[in-house]
Amino acid sequence: MDEGNYISANLDEGYSPEAIANMDNALEEFAVSLTEIRPEDANIAVFRGLKLTLKGRPRRLAELGNVESPDDPMKIELMIYNKEQIEAVLEFIKKNGFPAKNEPGSQFIHIRVPKPSRMQLEELGDEVIRRTNSAATRLMKIKTNTGLRIRAAMEKEYIDQRISGVALKKIDNALERITKEMKIIGVMKRKAILGSFFKTIERDDGEIIKIINKRIKLEKDKIAKEQELRIADEALEVQNQVTNEVDTENIKSNEELKV
To answer: N or C: which end of the chain has fewer CB within 10 A?
Structure first.
């Protein structure tokens, strides 16, 4: 077999493109999963977990009714499944410090809740870290599994060492790039959740913050530049309009003088 033709025929190996596509999908799914974590939902999560004792048995509120916040995150609607339990649940909620009311004949209890506490927000931040680490582990598994397939292909002489090296290098580069992007997205989400309570926890948080700040600055510079160009274009358009009007007046005056 001619070695040159062999390598050329296998330069378009499918291992690295498939691995990189899987990594990109993992990144997208990770980003989507973070949209589920919202500070305004912290109180709902806590509320669902509150326990009261009915007939000697501890029950979570989520077991007794549907907990939702359809209009305002600071206002919770609890629809009790069993009307006979409404009075006991309403009393329990009030004793736990939540202003609550129930209209006669309605299965709904309306509760006003405070803003999430710092501790609640930090718990959400910890959840973001867990999901970030889990997503990064998923990337490593993709790399490892693809590496095993490439090794098996080499042993069966489907590809040679050179092509294997190129494929593995591409995968390593993608792993580094996508892992960093995951961490950036994770830190940005934590900052959005925690606000002034945000602090660096993970080892590379400081480096990630620098990247985020640089991106923000570049985006602001881009917007400012676009605004400058827009203002300049508008000014030029006005100038051209004025010039055209002056030219029209001059032509009109000259024609009147001729008459």
So the answer is: C
